[in-house]
UniProtKB/TrEMBL annotation:
Keywords: Methylation. The keyword Cell membrane does not apply. The keyword Ribonucleoprotein does not apply. InterPro entries: PCRF, Pep_chain_release_fac_I, Pep_chain_release_fac_I_sf. This is PrfB, peptide chain release factor 2. GO terms for molecular function: translation release factor activity.
Length: 347
């Protein structure tokens, strides 16, 4: 780590370092991570280990149920943080360090699919909270029956996109329908799309003439439901709706941020500049089935790309998805160019 920091220090010292803002910003981000984050992380692990050692010494002298539970809690926390650090080492793309917009959409207009979309939203919220990541639902369209038609979750933590890009695709649930009096077995589908949150390293603006913005706000009211904004990108036909911020301006800013991320992802997929996007060649990022969740007659969750599976379906729906994230990133990193193309077809 020290050698890498020394090298980055030499890069900054070059007279032309600031000539290109994008790589300069990325270099500064890497320095911040290497110096501050890793050091802070190491100190934290040492502190947890010291707490565990001190508690075990006390337990040798006298049994204490509460202290033993604290030891188990610290061990679990340390294991989770070490696992997250191991996964982080698998991130290699420049966009991986960014935060993420995660959008969930019910694939069918019925109660089962919409409730499945809601279950997925809960799963990702629980995953984020277990890692202490800042979460914010920035757009949501609730169903009239149950669940949601779609929702977008903003995760502003570093590397959220790198972790969650494995989740882009269609997720399938098989369970006894809670909305069917005959208790029949139903299959429900919901799509997940994960996009990087753009930061200062990406310098571009959408032309005003390419935007059509509609909104509604009742005078004298600050009700959230009355400050929604819909933003339509005319050249591509992409639309974004935001309604969860307190003010009209906040919803407008958030809608613009999501739209930029969508256009950025499409441009990357097409291998062109953003202003060169071909609307007719836009392909959904989440139209491939990637994972099955079976809750009846048996319980199992299986990733169809890596073949990793677990019988602990309840734990997965409770946010424990790191085994799928890790397996996907490992396969992505070790794949041949042909394998990478096959993986990309799932996106």
């Amino acid at each position: 780590m020290t050698a890498r920091i020394q090298y980055l220090d030499q890069v900054i010292a070059q007279p032309d370092f600031w000539n290109n803002p994008t790589p300069a910003y990325e270099t500064l981000q890497e320095i911040e991570y290497s110096i501050f984050y890793k050091h802070q992380q190491y100190q934290r692990w040492c502190s947890i280990l010291e707490d565990i050692k001190a508690a075990l010494e006390l337990l040798e002298l006298s049994a204490d149920e509460q202290l033993w539970q604290e030891v188990q809690s610290n061990v679990t926390q340390l294991q989770q943080e070490l696992e997250t650090a191991e996964i982080r080492q698998l991130l290699s793309d420049p966009e991986d360090k960014k935060g993420a917009f995660l959008t969930i959409t019910a694939e069918v207009d019925n109660a089962d699919s919409q409730y499945w979309a809601y279950m997925l939203l809960q799963m990702y919220c629980r995953w984020g909270k277990s890692h202490n990541y800042p979460l914010d639902v920035v757009e949501i369209y609730e169903s009239n029956e149950a669940g949601i038609k779609y929702a977008t979750l903003e995760i502003t933590a570093s590397c959220a996109y790198g972790y969650l890009k494995s989740e882009t695709g269609t997720h399938q649930l098989q369970q006894i329908s809670p909305f069917d009096a005959t208790k029949s077995l139903r299959t429900s589908l919901a799509s997940v799309e994960v996009l990087p949150i753009l930061d200062e390293s990406v310098e571009w603006e959408i032309r005003e003439k390419h935007l059509e913005i509609t909104w509604h706000r009742h005078r004298g009211s600050v009700n959230r439901a009355e400050t929604w904004v819909r933003m339509f990108h005319i050249p591509t036909g992409i639309s974004v709706f935001c309604n969860q911020q307190r003010s009209l301006m906040q919803n407008k800013e958030k809608a613009l941020a999501i739209l930029k991320s969508k256009l950025f992802a499409i441009a990357l997929a097409q291998g062109v500049q953003i202003d060169k996007i071909q609307p007719r060649q836009i392909k959904p990022l989440s139209n491939k089935l990637i994972r099955e969740y079976i809750l009846h007659p048996d319980t199992k969750v299986k990733d169809l790309r890596t073949n990793v599976e677990t019988l602990a379906a309840t734990e997965v729906l409770d946010g424990k998805i790191n085994l799928f994230i890790k397996a996907y990133l490992q396969q992505l990193n070790h794949a041949t160019s042909v394998d990478k193309e096959a993986l990309d077809n799932f996106k």
